[in-house]
Structures are given as structure tokens and as C-alpha cells.
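F.,

This is the one I mentioned.
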């Protein structure tokens, strides 16, 4: 697994506002969208392209288009939805699938309550978006779903990660998918998880910050 933590003053500036408990939901959504676009720019460096010929007003020349099969973006519901707009702005031709994974607040174990993905993902590059890489359980489950359907590679884009979660994902991949390409992009790697599975210092519950407290 390749882990990338973006080191850029604009990203740190936006993450600082995101963390602030006084940031409103509407500002939180706007900052999330802006951060995702910055993260996605880095995270799509290896997106597959095919050579094309293009006619300009003056001549013809070589260029590239995003290759088929198109990349698939998978927001993990509910908080991942808040990242979708920023992602599709950059990759408007991508397809979108959905995974609903929730964690049991006592055991912290994730369970899947909704799934809407193409049956076949052969050779697809999949971008999983979920704001918080906390225990890593949700990301492990999401990765298993798409690799079991034949995805070629996974790029996970998260806003904030915890070292425990990143380590859990690394171990899971080594044990279960040692030959698959997985990259993880974070805007910040935080200090730790607390004993109820929240990232510290973190930003609280990302779904609540985006959408309010309704379940
Ligand atoms: N999910 C969140 O929304 N926040 C955390 O800190 C951890 C998991």
C-alpha cells in the first residue's frame, strides 16, 4: 500500500478550518469539496489514459483521453457523499457506485447495509471516498467488495487518517490482497484514535458535521 499525506499549505489551511468546531455545516461542505478536488488531483496521477488524435483549428496532434473502462468512484455512505461533488468535478466521465457501511458503535466493527456497484469491475480503477480513515475496518470492507468483483486497483481518498487505521489496512492488504495496487491519499495524518474510535485531534463525526445529526 502506498500512503500519501499531502504536504501543502493550502491543504493544511483548509483542514484547520474543517477541524474548527465553530465551522458551520455549509462551510464544512464547501471546504470538503475544495479539499477533495486538491486530493483528487494528486490521487489521479496514475489514471489510465489512451492516445487520441485531435484536430485543432490549425492542425492535428496527439493527445490523451481517459481510457475505458472508465474509473469508478465509490463514496462510502453517508459521509463519503459529501466528497462526491469535488471528485466528479475533476473526473466528470467517471461512473459512480455506492457502498453503505456503518460501524457498530460498541464493537466498532463495520457492517454493510447498502450496496450499489456494477456486478463486474474487471480492470476498473476504483476511487473509494470516505472522509475518515479511523480504525480502517470500513476501508478494508470496501476494498474487499471491489477486489472481489475484479477491480484492478483501488485509490482511497480520505480527509483525515489515524496511524492505527492505516496500519490495519496495510496488514489486511498484505494478508489478503498482496498483489493488488492500493494507494491511500490523506489531507492529514493525525495522532491517534481515542477509546471510542474517534480520530484525535480529528474533526468529530464527519457525517454529523456535513449533514447534521440525523441518522
Ligand atoms: N468517523 C468520524 O466521523 N470521525 C472520526 O473521528 C472517526 C470516524
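My design for it:
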Amino acid at each position: 500500500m502506498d500512503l500519501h499525506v499531502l504536504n501543502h499549505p493550502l491543504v493544511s489551511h483548509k483542514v484547520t478550518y474543517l477541524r474548527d468546531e465553530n465551522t458551520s455545516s455549509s462551510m464544512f461542505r464547501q471546504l470538503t469539496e475544495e479539499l477533495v478536488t486538491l486530493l483528487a488531483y494528486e490521487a489521479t496521477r496514475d489514471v489510465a489514459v489512451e492516445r487520441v488524435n485531435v484536430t485543432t483549428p490549425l492542425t492535428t496532434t496527439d493527445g490523451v483521453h481517459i481510457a475505458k473502462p472508465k474509473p469508478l468512484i465509490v463514496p462510502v455512505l453517508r459521509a463519503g457523499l459529501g466528497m462526491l461533488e469535488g471528485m466528479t468535478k475533476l473526473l466528470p466521465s467517471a461512473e459512480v457506485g455506492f457502498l453503505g457501511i456503518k460501524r457498530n458503535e460498541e464493537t466498532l466493527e463495520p457492517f454493510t447495509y447498502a450496496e450499489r456497484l456494477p456486478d463486474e469491475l474487471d480492470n476498473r480503477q476504483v476511487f473509494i471516498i470516505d472522509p475518515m480513515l479511523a480504525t480502517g475496518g470500513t476501508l478494508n470492507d470496501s476494498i474487499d467488495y471491489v477486489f472481489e468483483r475484479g477491480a484492478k486497483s483501488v485509490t482511497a481518498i480520505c480527509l483525515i487518517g489515524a496511524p492505527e487505521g492505516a496500519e490495519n489496512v496495510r496488514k489486511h492488504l498484505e494478508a489478503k490482497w498482496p498483489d493488488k495496487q492500493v494507494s491511500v491519499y490523506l489531507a492529514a495524518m493525525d495522532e491517534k484514535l481515542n477509546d471510542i474510535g474517534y480520530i484525535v485531534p480529528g474533526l468529530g463525526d464527519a457525517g454529523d458535521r456535513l449533514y447534521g445529526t440525523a441518522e
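Helices lie at 9-19, 25-43, 84-90, 137-148, 163-176, 206-211.

Talk soon.
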